[in-house]
């Protein structure tokens, strides 16, 4: 949310060309894609906790680095690194929460976690209101040199640098919290390493940190089922990756994987496209397509209170999407490749977020200042996602006689 105002300030400060402006918006999404793919490789081998810790460090470190960027190329590199950090953490958090939550409370936990995004947005909005509510406090003194330090000491604030520093603070604070309060997933340790002593140590530490000394620890692996599950037989790393790949591309899972990728791409393309388009182009468009004119004309007749209601309704739908998809992924895919699947779905789907600003700039340059190309792509993606979802539901219904995947361990 911070990057919306920052992008406008950077455009005024550096006089960015359209391609560079689009790349600044797309760089974090490209980094997110790479981070998600790395998260699956790291998380399904080393664990969920290392990915979360690395995510906090990268987001905080590159976030502060962004505030010191002196050129647009450095900003692109730092934004890419920030995206990698974010991509490392998202699949790990979803996998960790689903693996430590009881099935009957799993959706509640995921909804609470997704709802925390709202607190981050409120923090970002408060930072903008406190530092530069009019987005007018950036200028020549934002360049990195001695005069800049003297001017900032004279209360000439370079607001976009200050905003980026404010945005990076929570990540570094959360590192200290995670080092002391975040434990590895007992389910991952069991399925991946079969280290039962480590599992009991983690469970006892969690019990102690929660002050629940009266709760007994009884870990009971089902050895009969363990022998039936190929992922728990300590294969070599190469064999593990082959098993994960076969699971994702097999007839039982491939349709679900590609459907979720398409739905995620549609969501990211629409969401980040609108986020990029509204603050920069809405007031500068010379011509509009007929469809967009009708939408804007109808919006003029909507009462003011409908804007707030619509915003919260949209936020609720987004949170619902995160909770449903995360719960579904946790229930369908096995522990041994869960983070890899979440990373692939989130990462490849984020290509929609990468494409949105680039297509918007192309539409502005080659289609007489209209949004026709962007709107056409939104319609195509929505139709494709709806069709794929329907086909996948029919396929799941046909395969309903198959036993759903269940985790083979019980934690009390």
From TrEMBL:
The chain crosses the membrane at residues 20-41, 53-70, 76-97, 109-131, 163-183, 257-278, 314-333, 339-360, 372-396. InterPro entries: MFS_dom (IPR020846), MFS_sugar_transport-like (IPR005828), MFS_trans_sf (IPR036259). It comes from the Eukaryota. One of its GO terms (cellular component) is membrane. One of its GO terms (molecular function) is transmembrane transporter activity. The keyword Nucleotide-binding does not apply. It is found in: Membrane. PROSITE patterns: MFS. It is a multi-pass membrane protein. Keywords: Membrane, Transmembrane, Transmembrane helix, Transport. Residues 1-402 form the Major facilitator superfamily (MFS) profile domain. Pfam families: Sugar_tr. This is Inorganic phosphate transporter, putative. It comes from Perkinsus marinus (strain ATCC 50983 / TXsc). The lineage of its organism: Eukaryota, Sar, Alveolata, Perkinsozoa, Perkinsea.
């Amino acid at each position: 949310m911070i990057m919306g105002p920052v992008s406008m300030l950077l455009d005024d400060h550096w006089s960015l060309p359209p391609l560079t402006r689009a790349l600044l918006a797309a760089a974090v999404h490209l980094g997110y894609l790479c981070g998600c793919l790395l998260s699956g490789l790291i998380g399904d081998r080393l664990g969920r906790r290392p990915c979360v810790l690395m995510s906090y460090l990268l987001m905080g470190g590159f976030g502060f680095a962004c505030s010191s960027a002196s050129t647009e190329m450095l900003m692109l590199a730092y934004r890419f690194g920030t995206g990698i950090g974010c991509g490392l953490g998202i699949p790990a958090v979803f996998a960790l929460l689903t693996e430590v939550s009881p099935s009957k409370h799993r959706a509640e936990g995921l909804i609470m976690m997704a709802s925390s995004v709202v607190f981050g947005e409120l923090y970002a909005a408060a930072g903008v209101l406190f530092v530069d509510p009019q987005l007018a406090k950036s200028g020549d003194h934002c360049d990195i040199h001695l005069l800049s330090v003297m001017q900032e000491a004279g209360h000439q604030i370079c607001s976009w640098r200050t905003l980026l520093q404010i945005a990076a603070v929570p990540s570094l604070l959360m590192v200290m919290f995670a080092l002391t309060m975040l434990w590895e997933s007992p389910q991952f340790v069991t399925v991946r390493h079969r280290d039962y002593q480590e599992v009991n140590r983690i469970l006892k530490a969690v019990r102690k940190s929660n002050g629940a000394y009266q709760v007994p620890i009884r870990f009971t692996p089902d050895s009969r089922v363990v022998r039936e599950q190929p992922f728990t037989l300590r294969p070599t790393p190469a064999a593990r990756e082959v098993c994960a790949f076969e699971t994702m591309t097999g007839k039982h899972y491939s349709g679900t994987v590609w459907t979720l990728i398409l739905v995620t791409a549609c969501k990211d393309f629409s969401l980040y496209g609108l986020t990029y388009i509204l603050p920069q182009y809405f007031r500068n468009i010379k011509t509009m397509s007929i469809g967009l004119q009708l939408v804007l004309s109808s919006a003029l007749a909507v009462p003011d209170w409908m804007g707030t209601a619509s915003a919260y309704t949209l936020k609720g739908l987004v949170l619902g999407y995160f909770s449903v998809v995360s719960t579904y992924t946790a229930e369908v895919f096995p522990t041994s490749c869960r983070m890899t699947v979440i990373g692939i779905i989130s990462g490849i789907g984020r290509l929609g977020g990468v494409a949105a600003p680039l297509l918007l700039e192309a539409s502005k340059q080659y289609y007489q200042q209209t949004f026709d190309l962007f709107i056409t792509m939104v319609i195509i993606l929505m139709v494709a996602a709806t069709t794929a979802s329907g086909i996948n539901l029919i396929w799941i219904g046909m395969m309903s006689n198959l036993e759903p995947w269940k985790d083979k361990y019980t934690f009390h």
